[in-house]
Every structure is written in structure tokens, then in C-alpha cells.
């Protein structure tokens, strides 16, 4: 195809992708209807007494549309289902989601083929990503069951959480002989009560081999084609070749190095079609086993400025305030300036992505590689906004905030898209840039001795985006920003018992501590329909609280002290009980309400 058709083809693909997403989002409208989806669910669970009333339908639709399990788990617990039965239902719905979205992805692929979009080179990439993805789905299920249901479940019968953390930290993958911050291996008990480490290729041999064969197949196809659109054939070939090698690598001492090579080729690919592989490790708090994620993101062509200027100004300000050394300053500044930003839409996704998609993401998580290439930041505002618009209004939100505040929130969401996106840019994209700040090669390893690094890192990231905005003295959207921020904090309280979401739960506890301490939030359990008052006149005090707290956090990072030290200023890190009574009272009250009423529609 001709290069001047790229924009036209990309627009057609993005529109089709949005149409497919919109059809799924509109499933929320069917709660009162007897649609085929619910009949299929009923058939799937015919041996279980699963009553599909409105609350259960909301929980199931959250699992399918938002790809999140929180509502489902709480609704099942509320109905006194046993843990074994809950896990059985989770497994069945994961399989349902995998099949459901595989059909959706095939429809997108059929559209690309039918319209002959882009070139054969990129159509081959789309087909290959899907083919590999179907195997990654199998890999993910095996990975999840092996690590969490088998290995960690068995160990937890013998050891406490603290003991497991200490024992398993010694089994982390190594980076040039030093303990790494992530693992591409699993452990299992050996003969003499010691632990044997196995690479993913060894632990999941058959499916890893299958994935490698599929990668070889796409390599063979791409080698005889040309990239006439973006001239990045060599990078794609190097990327897939490196990827094939890691799925065959059995030497645990080489895993970090080999995966770093995958990341290095990947970060240099700069086309609208961004394949993403194994990056994140939220699920595993013991060894940070990297999750089997796999997707293809369709990116807009226009340049995007995701608050990088305000983050650089924020970095300059706090570097000066805290006396950051010149070498660290120049290194971080270089990373910020070389980081690429993409506004994107998930086209194809597999593996752990069936348990939730990102609202934004900064990758790769390799501080060594970051020095040379920076990072990539992806934002997905269209998906985030459309889900929020389509989901039914929940009774609990109105019980907490009252009708007036909720009307303000929905007016911005539905009728002021430019203001909503400005807020998203500051908070969500600012969060991703905030992850980059104050990080060096050994920061995470040194600060994670108690296992709490991730539990302050998410707060650092969000606060970085917020203080970057505060330092601009721009009051144009402060009201909308604060409202959105507080709404997000309250919503995440519902993730209290979801393992991979705990870092975000710790994060919002810290935000709420500040909101209550500064008087922005006042809790009255006995008030009718407005339990939480928002005192907007206190926003300036809240801003100052963030500036002070963030400065203290920066000093902690610069000195690479244990994350637990900072957490303990605000809460008991083991029980997650806030030291501020009124804030803690609200958190406990909300959790009880969420368990019972979190799926109740207004």
C-alpha cells in the first residue's frame, strides 16, 4: 500500500476497534433483559445454584466488560459460597472471558483482512500476535495455577507471610550476580526442604515450546516480506528472535539478561502497532514473577504531550529542594526527555490481560535499560471514559458522596470530554511519569526488604503527577481534578482483598489520610445519603499536604531506606489500619458497605 493511506487505514481500524468495544460496553444496558450472554452463563454454571439477579449480573458484567474480579468475589462471598466454589467460578469465568475475547479479536482480524488494511507485513504481525496469544492464554492459566494455587498455597500452610518473604527473596533471579527486582522463574520444594528454581521454559515446557514454534512461524513469514510503511523490519525480526530465545531459555542465571534483550529491541520499535509482552509483576508479592501478558496496542499517529513538561518542572523543583546529586539528576532528566508517549487502544490482548487492562502504563520495568532508551508511556482514555459512562450508577456512590457531588462528577464525565481528558492527563498520565522519578538500578531491591516497596511506589507515582500540576499554579481544573481523585480513592477501597491490587489499596489509604487530616473529607456515619462531606475550601491545605509529604518521600527514595519506614508514619503496615481515627473509621465503614451493597444499582 502507499504511505499516504496509512492515516486512512489507521482511522478505519481504530473506528472498528472502538465499535467492537462499544458493543461490549453496552452489555451493561442489558441487566433487565434476558440476553443470550446470560443464558450462556446460566448453562456454564448449570451445576451451581447461581441466581442471576441484578447484583449478580452486575458482578458478572464487571468480570466480562471491565475484566475485573473484585465485584464477583465479593458478591459470591456475600452469598456465603465456599472458597473452593468461588475459585471454581473464577476459573470458569476466566475461561469464558478468554473464549469471549478470542472471538472478538478474530472479528477485528477478519476486518483487517477483508479491507486489506496496511501492508501484508503488518497483517502478518496481527495474525501472528493472535496465534501466539492463544497459546499465551494457556500459559497464563498454567502459570496462575502453579504459582498461587499450588506452590504458594502449600508454602503458606507451613510458613507465615513474613517467613515466606524472607525465604523466597533469596530465590529471586539474578542480574549479573546481584538480586534482581523481578523473576522469570518459579520455585518448587526440593528433596531436603530447599528450593529448586525453574525458568518459565522449564516449568511450563510444553506450552513454552509451542509458543517458540509459533514465533518461528511468524519470523519465517516476515523474513520474506518488506516493511514499506515504517521501515522497521529489522527491529521486528530482532524482537521476535529474542522473544523466541527466552521461551526456550532454561538457565535461570541468563533470564534477566535475555529478557532485557527482548525489551531493548522492543523499546526501539516506534510504529502505531505496539506489541507488549511480559512486563508487570503485581500478582506476586514474594518473588515478583513477571506475569504472562501479551497484547497489541493500536496507537494514534499524532504526537502526545502527557504532562512531561510539568513533571520535568516538578523534578527540577524537588531535586533542588533535596540536594539531588548531579549524576542522578542528569540521568533522570535524560530519561524523562527520551520517554515516548502513546495514546492507544487495545486491539488484541491475551494472558493476564484477561484479568484486567491498564488505564495507562509505563514500561519496561528495567532501570538499566531506562538509562539508554527511556521508557514508553501508554494511555487509554477512550476505553476508561466509555466504561465509566456505560456502567450503571451505583447506590453506594450516592450514599457516600450525595446527589450533588455525583451530579458534578457525571456532568464532567458525560458532557465535558475536554475537561475530563485534561484531568485524566494530569492524574493518570502524570502517575506513569511519576514512576520514573527518583529511581536507580538498586532502588527497588534496597527499599523492598520488608516487601513494601510497591505499596509506596504507587503513591509516589500519583503524587508526582499531582504535585507537578500543583506547582504550575494552574487552577483551571483543580475542582474537577480533586473530585476525580477522591472518587478514584473511594472506588479502590473495594480492592481490599484482591492480591494484585494491594499496592493501589495502600496508595489510596495514604491519599485518604491526607484528605481527612487536612479537613477535605469529613465522615458522618449517621448522615442520610451524604456520609462523606467534601470541603472544597480545604483544597489548598490538601495541596500543601501533598507537597510536604512528597518531599519527605523523595528523601526516603534518595537514601533508599526501607519502604515500611514511610508507611508506618500513616498506618500499621501489617493490618493496614490508619493512625488517623476518623479516616480509619470511614475505611472500615466503607468496606462493610461495599461487601453488602457494592453491586446495588441506584
Kindly describe this structure.
- This protein is an alpha+beta fold.
- The chain has 3 domains: 1-115, no CATH class; 118-299, no CATH class; 390-597, no CATH class.
- The protein has helices spanning 6-25, 36-44, 54-66, 70-78, 83-115, 120-155, 161-169, 200-203, 205-223, 233-246, 255-268, 308-322, 326-338, 367-373, 381-390, 395-401, 403-415, 417-436, 443-447, 453-470, 478-492, 502-517, 539-559, 563-567, 581-597; strands at 174-175, 178-179, 185-189, 195-199, 273-276, 293-299, 340-351, 360-363, 376-379, 521-523, 532-534, 571-572, 577-578.
- It is globular and about 70 Å long.
- The mean pLDDT is 93.
Please tag this protein with its features:
13 strands, alpha+beta, 3 domains, single chain, 5-stranded mixed β-sheet, 602 residues, two-stranded antiparallel ribbon
Briefly summarize what is shown.
This is DUF7897 domain-containing protein. The chain has 602 residues and is of the alpha+beta class.
Please give the radius of gyration in angstroms.
24 Å
Number of strands: 13
Shape, please?
Answer: globular
Largest sheet: 5 strands, mixed
Order of strands across the main sheet: 5-6-7-9-8
Residue ranges: pLDDT <50 for 5 or more in a row? none
Alpha carbon gap, first and last residue = 51 Å
Please report the number of helical segments: 25
Helix-strand category: alpha+beta
Strand content: 5-15%
Q: How confident overall, as mean pLDDT?
A: 93
Count of the domains: 3
Share of helical residues: 55-70%
Organism: Helicobacter anseris
Pfam families: DUF7897
Protein name: DUF7897 domain-containing protein
Domain DUF7897: 8-601
